Structures
1.
Amino acid sequence: MLQGSLVAIVTPMHADGGLDINSLRKLIDFHVDAGTDGIVIVGTTGESPTVDVEEHCLLIKTTIEQVAGRVPVIAGTGANSTREAIELTQKAKTLGADACLLVAPYYNKPTQEGLYQHYRAVAEAVDIPQILYNVPGRTGCDILNDTAIRLAAIPNIIGIKDATGSIERGTDLLLRAPKDFLIYSGDDASGLALLLLGAHGVISVTANVAPKLMHEMFVTAMTGKVQEARVINAKLFALHQKLFIEANPIPVKWVLQEMGLIGAGIRLPLVTLSSQHHDTLRKAMAAAGL
């Protein structure tokens, strides 16, 4: 159920930084129609650090309503406060999310034991499937594989989004984790490689702008059509790279605006894409046929 190309969807905003709920609804339909296998709402790409709790819940609620059971909805509910993570996760369950994605606590740099106790506390407090999210380049905190394997023994911790970009670490997880523990690539540039090694899906930034191709890449990889998957990945590779030419989600929101899918809104301290990168991203769009 929670396999395939899952989009780490952006949060559309008006020019003043307010939420653009109508554009979010249209964006969700765009993804479902294009074959996206699941929607991850209010993750890093959804600007979770700068939405308040009321907005956070509104985004989850709107997504669940608009999806209407057509694909799974995974709610980002991580926080650097365990109490806040429990509160957000409980709210997501009450609203009807299928699962939650919990980023590693950022800034306060817990030890590996602290990480274990944090995730264990959330899992024991809220009975909903939970996915760990390890992105040390953003959080300053790394969920080591030994800790992830230890957490995999907790029944409702069902998987991990590995955004380290390390094939070695991903392979180690795939070899050591329980067979029913879901491992997702959170790094688009190395996503196909991890899929071919046995990962269960991607939680993707690129899927925001190329959902059909990302879905097709997953399907071809999973059905043994490796050459076809490589061809698709080659078309997407410039996007995989250049969508991070500035801090995510600055570039991906700019591309979506170019495609006419959202407006120009983004919330401070993030600002719109520097003009010097426009041509670079347009070339990446052209290579992918956007």
Note: The chain has one domain: 4-225.
2.
Amino acid sequence: MKPGLLPLDDALAQLLSHAAPLAGAARVSTFEADGRVLAQDLVSQLQVPPQDNSSMDGYAVRVAELAEGAVLPVSQRIPAGSQPQPLAAGSAARIFTGAPIPQGADAVVMQEDTEPVDDGRVRFSRVPEPGQWIRRSGEDVRRGAVVLARGERLTPASLGLAASIGIDALEVARRPRVALFSTGDELVMPGEVPPAQMKPGAIYNSNRFFLRALLLRLGCEVKDLGIVPDRREATVQALREAAAGCDLILTSGGVSVGEEDHIKPAVQALGSLDLWQIAMKPGKPFAYGRIADAHFIGLPGNPVSSFITFVLLVRPFLLKLQGATRLAPRAMELPAHFELPRPDRRREFLRARRDAEGGLDLFPNQSSGVLTSTVWGDGVIDNPPGRPIARGDRVAFIPLAELLA
């Protein structure tokens, strides 16, 4: 590893040290809160379920009054949403899933273990255990319990849980406002120039599409400033416009030190800048700075480098801005079904996917320009510096589902 390269964990720690949670919150409909970060604890004012209820269609009974083959009269019918009468002695109550248990009953016999007989009676082929097929009041949520904690990122299941305790609106962190642009005279937008008319050296701007999509998935409001020409004055103007009213300026390309890389002097002319060379592959060049009240992050231009640095560095930064408490993706250990005899001296994030045998296959071309690898793969292998991988070795695998959520 070259001297002066910053370990990824150190770079992330430095980056996150600048990410103070944004001031302000918003109250939004529970219907619209998916993916937002909860701004206050959600405390239940009720029990879920509110009273003991049946988890099966069948008959509510007193266990002490049953024996195998017993026949009991049916004294009442209890559908879900009704209020039952106390269970009459020596009888059974026809009951349906979700219906409240009548006072005096201590078990439910599912209908498959019963047989109707004449005169509205029912025969029982099995004697239940006390409490069988009864869902107890509060077994899901207790009154006064914190069901969702401040800093949790809301999921569809979270929204259902909030609704189950009667919550129709939630206090969530406000959305980060992010200005996005790409730099490079070689960049062309799809639809503007047909492939047959592309000039030599021109490429379609793929980064703008996946970066915008990643920002939206993280709940950001995106101000898309398009493609900025490789000129100092144009870069300064774009940065000045981006800093007005935004929390973060995110760029791709132009963070190296070539003659056409104008991000560094432009940011320094308006604010402050740290340029980091991170000991990771792909994604070595990375920049963080400030322009007025806005954070600035500059990503490398190669598409896979831009993608990987976003999900490993920018994603946790944006989550912390929203007050999220879980920032790190969860990895799992899986066996390698490939060999990597010549590892890089930097920490590598190898595009891979799980196979039918529960192991990992490696995409054959790990170049930072091969965006196909990020579509083919369903995750990345986090491989330490200089570590060769033999077939069968267990490696740390981070699913893309952890990095894109």
Note: The chain has four domains: 8-23+175-321, 29-47+139-173, 53-135, 332-404.
